[in-house]
Amino acid sequence: METLPSSTLDIPKRGMPVTIITGFLGSGKTTLLNEILANKQDLKVAVLVNEFGDINIDAQLLISTEEDMVELSNGCICCTINEGLVDAVYRVLEREEQVDYMVIETTGVADPLPIILTFLGTELRDLTRLDSIVTLVDAETFTPEHFESEAALKQITYGDVVILNKTDLASSEKVEELERYIKTVKPSARILQTQQAKVPLPLILDVNLTPVQQYQTTEEHRYSPHLQTDGFVSVPFKSYSPFDLDKFEKFLTEEIPAEVFRAKGILWFNNSEMRHIFQLSGPRYDIQLEEWPSSPLNQIVFIGRHLDPNKIRQQLNNCLVLQPSKLAQAMGLKSF
Ligand SMILES: Nc1nc2c(ncn2[C@@H]2O[C@H](COP(=O)(O)OP(=O)(O)OP(=O)(O)O)[C@@H](O)[C@H]2O)c(=O)[nH]1
């Protein structure tokens, strides 16, 4: 990893520079955010993490400390909680401690335009400087059909920098083909190729690449009907009882609905002292072991189209060591 030239850290204090990280579900946005936080040196970065489910897993997996971070859960900042975005930026600006830079991670199903226009068309225009929209693309799973998601296409259309990530999982032909495709959608984009979103920060931060003038004439879009989440729904699940490892493995390999596109969770298993960071993205899943920073509990979110939340919750309840009815009995409570 290159070290950051000292000039890059000398960001002038005229309006706080803002970079928006976008990209489809599982493309590597949180990985990039962690990469930024690990290499920001003395730059004081505030991060704003948005998830459309009501459990914010990403926020719990960031290496940042709590003071640097504003979480926006249970709604998408490009639509339902757009006002929340303005308030969150104000909260950062009002802090006594100087913040040099703000990085925003959108949900994987966000249309970047309403977020861009919030920065350019509200009182935030004078307080911040929109620097760049950075779009992550999963080189393994992305196709020109862009998952039949209008949001996935818009993320590329508005990307000033497009990062073709996960090149370790795609052939060089596929990566070249994708690069050609991206150039047809967004000829002016700076295209980078990465693994684990490892990128020299001067290529993506304080680059002044957002064509602010061009957006000034498109303000009416802000009020146009939002894409909703392109049919994607998020099913959260939380439990204070651990999972039985064998049952959970069986669920993953045999029962999980095919419509689940993405899942992420912090898991507690009966036979382990460790917390398990679970990531499922398209065709693969991965589990990493870490120490628990606090009391164990299970938190997991499933994202996909046409999901049946009750069925998934029932399947997960069946994987618990102590199922809710038994837990209620054990606690002397009536179960409903
Ligand atoms: N093999 C491989 N895996 C990667 C790479 N970058 C990220 N991943 C993994 O892909 C999964 C998803 O990465 P995230 O950074 O959480 O993706 P995201 O865009 O934040 O996902 P959402 O939260 O759904 O929006 C995680 O398991 C990462 O460890 C890469 O370059 N190669």
From TrEMBL:
One of its GO terms (molecular function) is nucleotide binding. Coiled coil: none annotated. It catalyses: GTP + H2O = GDP + phosphate + H(+). This is CobW/HypB/UreG, nucleotide-binding domain protein. Belongs to the SIMIBI class G3E GTPase family. ZNG1 subfamily. The lineage of its organism: Bacteria, Bacillati, Cyanobacteriota, Cyanophyceae, Oscillatoriophycideae. PANTHER family: COBW C-TERMINAL DOMAIN-CONTAINING PROTEIN, COBW-RELATED. Gene3D superfamilies: CobW-like, C-terminal domain, P-loop containing nucleotide triphosphate hydrolases. Keywords: Chaperone, Hydrolase, Nucleotide-binding. Residues 232-320 form the CobW C-terminal domain.
